[in-house]
Structure formats: structure tokens, C-alpha cells
Design goal:
The structure holds two protein chains of two kinds.
Chain A lengths: L3 E7 L7 H19 L4 E7 L4 H10 L4 H11 L3 E9 L2 E2 L1 H9 L9 E8 L7 H12 L3 E2 L4 E4 H5 L2 H15 L9 H19 L16 H5 L1
Parallel strand pairs in A: 1-2, 1-3, 3-5, 5-6, 5-7
Antiparallel strand pairs in A: 3-4
Helix pairs in contact in A: 1-8, 2-4, 7-8
Chain B lengths: L1 E6 L15 H18 L3 E4 L12 H11 L4 E4 L2 E2 L5 H14 L6 E4 L6 H4 L7 H17 L3 E3 L7 E4 L13 E4 L4 H10 L2 E4 L6 H17 L10 E9 L3 H14 L9 H7 L3 E3 L1 H9 L1 H5 L4 E5 L7 H26 L11 H13 L4 H10 L1
Parallel strand pairs in B: 1-2, 1-12, 2-3, 4-5, 5-8, 8-9, 9-10, 10-11, 10-12
Antiparallel strand pairs in B: 6-7
The chains are: A alpha/beta, B alpha/beta.
Chain lengths: 223, 377
């Protein structure tokens, strides 16, 4: 059976980037949860920063060029997408939205999506539900109930807090292999990964659509 | 194979001087360019149709009718005629009139246009774009091929006992192309009727062009008009040439950087790599366009966009000379040498269509015709 394709998008701009770190961890948690169910999965991490210029070019020319085309194709062929943006001025970043804007409007229709966001403080966390979630609802993606926000402080809450929540984690997952690290953030990441994995596992692998596959014959166009 | 030029008819400031031609000057430039292309020996001149500034060619048959009188050999065409927002009755009349005046030295290309607001200006709904293209063209064909038409459809008042005049020259309508960039439905339409398909790829990567053309070819064969490689294909192109390629790049870059469509976006080098834009020596243009057949198969018409981005008229005329003298003869020879015998060298001329109609009358069950009628009934 072919491996499920999980694409994790990060709109982080920094190097290193906590947004990328969150995208990576959400993606890894999903792959790990899938493997626990015996489903093989492959994670691809995309930093939109690397295709920032082609994204602007695509808005001006109407087609994705070079490396951006590969990213667009990866999303169009993904079994699930992890989408993580930093919160800028109360919403997803411009780069994140611009990338979504150059996607085919149907590229994420029905596709399982896990949302994540990062910010300086937890006061920005509702950007997930006020900005990202409606965007993906418009695209008719199948958005996981849990979305994960990571504030700067969350990254500081290490394994001590993680140990405190590990029993809860073990109870919920019913798995003996639960990672105990990462604190409350680690726990939320694992929960989100399990949710996305459950959705992906319940589906057949995504088949890339032939763009000419559903063109009606001319007889039916003539009516 | 035919080589020609097509014009959008945009009024664009020359970015190197800031000079902007007025509408009158721009229309007259288009006439000069077309006459020059004829004298230089190019095969086709096609004008766009637009109904909003900064574009001037709102009335293509007026322009082409004049050109029919002052040119000798060049085929006069459109790129495109708006099949969505024009009344198909008026298209039938205008282009039959043009065909008669030009003595058959004309064809035309149907398109849906790329300007959203043009639909409401002409009382149409853009969401019906494809359906308008389908219904209007079906009516247009009937108006050209049937002397008396009774018709009722969704988008136009019904016709009872209507005759479009003048009747097409020698009873044969002009050859029709369908231009589309992204809509497979239009490739399907072209294939269904056995008409030509023009992919205006000037702003698009070749892999996209290849897919669209392949689809059209497959469907052309499916509808029984011949084998896939006999389908009639046209492509767009965009070049700027100087004897020395560095000179071409240096001269064209300021125009590229400010161009209305892609300006302020990708670099000249990136855009050239992604699209057919070729800026360099005539030999570079020959190499690039001579290889197009490897992507889309042997094709019949190559049109170049020459008068754009604010280039001065003098430069455009020089470019036409370089194209006609140094590029086209080589490309024509190469295309002809590579083309298998059963693949048409060009789109059907008026004389070809007259001969085909005479042949069909003599043998009314010619396979292509029989399939078309069976499907249409």
C-alpha cells in the first residue's frame, strides 16, 4: 500500500522558526499516530519562505513557476495538510494567505487539514478560530477539531510539565508508546496529530485528479 | 506552416520615454504594422477585440476590411472575436462581409475575452461564459451554413425565417479557430466541430500548453475529423531580437520590467524560462520555436506578439523585418522538412474549404461529415 502523504506548510519567516517547529511536530505527531494504526505515512515539510518570490510572481502572472509548482502539486496530492502560520496583526500572515490564494480553489476540498499558529503571547490564540478556520471552511477542507496554538512561553514549558500530563495522554491514547515530553503543548500536538491521523486512516489514499478527467462531452455541453 | 503576428491593441506608455500614443495614433500604428507584415511576407495578421481602455481595437471587421483593401497576401484574422458578448447574428454578418471583401483571405478566432466587466456592458452574465460560447457558436454556424434559420435558445431572442447576409463567399464559411488558455471545454468545442484550436501560451508554461493541445488532438480524433496529429493547432509567442543577444536583452528589459501583464513580477530571465518569451538573437528564436513541435506536435500557425509593452512603432517594424527575413524562412523550412505528409501544412485556406465542400457534395458520406451530423442530430 502506498504511503499516505502528509504535507506540513509553515509560513514562518525566521531561521530558526518556531512556526516551522510547530508544523514539523504536528506533522510528525500525525505520522506517528498513523503508524500506530499500521498506516504508512510520509511527511513533507514546506517552508513558504523558500517560495515567497514565486508566490508573488504567481499572483502577477497567473501561474506557479518552478519550485512553487512543486509545492502546489504536493498540496494537490496530499492526503492531509498541516497548515501553520505565525499570527501577524491579529491574523494569518500575508505570505500564508498569498500562498492559499494561488492554490486552485478546489485543491483542499474535502482534504483533512490540521491548523496551527504561533505568536508572542497566548492572547493571539483565537486567530486560529477567527481567521484560519473560516478560511479553510471556505475552501471546504475537512478541518480537525483541535487546532494548536504555540506562544513563546509554550516552548519554554519543558518536560517537567510534560511528565505531569503524560498520564492523561496515556489514558486518552490508550497507547503504551506515548511520548512524555513537550509539556501541555506536546500534549496538544499529540492530540491534534491523533485526530488528523484518525481522519486520514478512515479514508482511501488520495488520487490526483486528471484535470481533463471530468470535462463533459460536447454533446452534453450542447444540451 | 503559417507565421504571423497578433496584436492586443494596447495603449501603453513607452517606459523609456514616458510617451503615450493617443487612440488615433495607436489604431493607425496597427494598420501600419499589418501592412508592413504583409509586405515583409508574413502569413497572418490578427487583431484582438476589446471594449475598454487602454485597448483600441473595438471594431475588428472595420479594421480588417480596410486592411483587406490595402494588403495583398496576408491572411486577416482575429485574436479573438468575442463569441460570448457579441450577438452571433452580427458576427455572422460582419465576418461574412469581411470574407467577401477580402475575397476569402480571412479566418477568425473565437474567444471568451479576459475582461470580466465586458459581460455586463453587453448585457451578459460572466458566469455563463462557457454556455454563451457554446450556444452562440452553434447559432453562428447555422447562420453561415443554412440559408434560412429558425432558432430558439437561452441567451438571445428567437429567430424565425432569418437569413444572414451576405451569404458566405462561395457558400463556404471562413475557417474558425477557438482560442482558450485554461478551459478544456473550449478545446472540446474546437475538436467537436473539427475547427482549429489556438492556445495563447504567451504567459503560460509549455507543460500547460502541451496538456491542452494533447487533449484537443485526442478529442479531434474522437469526433472523427482525422487522426490526432491532423488536428489544426496554433500557438502564440513573444520575441524580441537583435543581432547580438545582449543588445536585445538590454533594449527590451525596461519594457519587460514595466509591461502591463507581468511587469514588476518575475525577472526577464525567469519569465523567459517559464514561457515562450525569447529575448535574444534571431538564432535563439529559431532554436526555441523550432523546438515547439516537440512539445505540441507539428502545428499549423505560429503567431507572435510584437507591438506591446509600449515599444515604439519604429522598433516594432524592425522586429517584423528581423522575424520575416531571418527567422521565419528557417522555421518554415525546418517545419516543412519535419512534417509528415498526412499532416496539414497549414489551416485550410478558402480555396481548400471550397474544394472540401465540393468533395463533400460529390461524396455526401465522407466520414468526418457523417460523424458530425450524427452527433449533432
Amino acid at each position: 500500500m502506498t504511503a499516505r502523504r502528509i504535507v506540513a506548510l509553515s509560513a514562518g519567516l525566521g531561521r530558526p522558526s518556531s512556526t516551522r517547529m510547530l508544523a514539523e511536530r504536528l506533522g510528525e505527531a500525525t505520522v506517528a499516530a498513523l503508524r500506530e494504526q499500521g498506516v504508512d505515512a510520509r511527511l513533507e515539510i514546506v517552508e513558504l519562505r523558500d517560495v515567497a518570490h514565486p508566490i508573488v510572481d504567481a499572483m502577477l502572472t497567473g501561474f506557479p513557476s518552478g519550485p512553487l509548482r512543486d509545492v502546489v502539486d504536493a498540496v494537490a496530492g496530499a492526503d492531509a495538510v498541516v497548515a501553520v502560520s505565525p499570527v501577524f496583526t491579529a491574523s494569518y500572515s500575508g505570505l500564508f494567505k498569498s500562498f492559499v490564494d494561488v492554490l486552485d480553489p478546489d485543491a483542499l476540498r474535502g482534504v483533512p487539514v490540521l491548523l496551527g499558529a504561533t505568536g508572542g503571547t497566548v492572547r493571539h490564540s483565537l486567530a486560529l478560530d477567527h481567521a484560519l478556520r473560516p478560511l479553510f471552511a471556505y475552501l471546504r477542507a475537512d478541518v480537525a477539531t483541535t487546532a494548536v496554538f504555540a506562544a513563546t512561553d509554550d516552548w519554554a514549558t519543558g518536560s517537567a510539565a510534560g511528565a505531569a500530563t503524560s498520564s492523561g495522554d496515556g489514558r486518552e491514547a490508550g497507547s503504551g508508546e506515548t511520548r512524555a515530553d513537550g509539556g501541555p503543548l506536546g500534549e496538544r500536538i499529540r492530540r491534534a496529530g491523533r485526530e488528523l491521523a484518525a481522519t486520514v486512516a478512515a479514508r482511501t489514499p488520495r488520487v490526483t485528479q486528471d484535470p481533463f478527467g471530468d470535462v463533459p462531452s460536447f454533446e452534453s455541453l450542447l444540451g | 506552416m503559417q507565421f504571423g503576428i497578433f496584436s492586443v491593441g494596447d495603449v501603453t506608455p513607452d517606459p523609456t520615454t514616458g510617451r503615450v500614443p493617443d487612440d488615433t495614433e495607436r489604431v493607425r500604428s496597427m494598420l501600419t504594422i499589418a501592412r508592413h507584415a504583409d509586405e515583409a511576407g508574413l502569413d497572418v495578421f490578427a487583431t484582438g477585440e476589446h471594449h475598454n481602455p487602454p485597448f483600441v481595437p473595438s471594431s475588428p471587421t472595420t479594421m480588417l476590411g480596410y486592411l483587406a483593401g490595402v494588403t495583398k497576401n496576408i491572411v486577416l484574422s482575429t485574436s479573438t472575436t468575442l463569441i460570448t458578448t457579441n450577438d452571433p447574428v452580427k458576427i455572422a454578418e460582419d465576418y461574412a462581409m469581411l470574407q467577401v471583401i477580402a475575397d476569402g483571405r480571412t479566418d477568425l478566432m473565437m474567444g471568451r475575452g479576459n475582461t470580466g466587466p465586458v459581460y455586463p456592458w453587453f448585457g451578459k452574465d460572466i458566469r455563463e461564459g462557457i454556455n454563451l460560447a457554446i450556444e452562440n457558436y452553434a447559432l453562428l454556424r447555422r447562420l453561415w451554413t443554412e440559408d434560412v434559420v429558425d432558432w430558439e435558445g437561452k441567451f438571445r431572442t428567437p429567430l424565425q425565417g432569418f437569413t444572414s447576409t451576405p451569404r458566405p463567399l462561395d457558400g463556404v464559411p471562413p475557417f474558425v479557430w477557438h482560442g482558450s488558455i485554461r478551459s478544456p471545454e473550449i478545446a472540446e468545442q474546437a475538436a467537436y466541430y473539427g475547427d482549429g484550436f489556438f492556445h495563447n501560451n504567451i504567459f503560460w508554461p509549455i507543460h500547460h500548453t502541451r496538456q491542452m493541445v494533447r487533449y484537443y488532438r485526442q478529442r479531434f480524433e474522437h469526433y472523427g475529423h482525422g487522426s490526432a496529429d491532423q488536428a489544426i493547432v496554433g500557438l502564440g509567442g513573444q520575441v524580441f531580437m537583435r543581432a547580438n543577444s545582449q543588445d536585445a536583452v538590454r533594449e527590451f528589459r525596461p519594457y519587460f520590467d514595466e509591461a502591463p501583464v507581468y511587469g514588476h513580477g518575475p525577472s526577464l530571465e525567469d519569465f523567459s524560462a517559464q514561457t515562450p518569451l525569447t529575448v535574444g538573437s534571431p538564432q535563439q528564436v529559431i532554436d526555441r520555436y523550432g523546438a515547439m513541435r516537440e512539445e505540441v506536435g507539428d502545428y499549423q500557425r505560429q503567431l507572435f506578439l510584437m507591438d506591446h509593452a509600449g515599444l515604439p512603432l519604429k522598433t516594432v517594424l524592425e522586429q517584423i523585418d528581423i522575424l520575416a527575413e531571418q527567422v521565419v524562412p528557417v522555421l518554415r523550412r525546418e517545419a516543412e522538412a519535419a512534417r509528415p505528409a498526412h499532416v496539414p501544412a497549414g489551416p485550410p485556406s478558402h480555396a481548400d474549404l471550397v474544394a472540401r465542400a465540393a468533395g463533400a457534395a460529390a461524396a455526401p458520406v465522407a466520414p468526418a461529415l457523417a460523424v458530425t451530423e450524427e452527433v449533432a442530430s
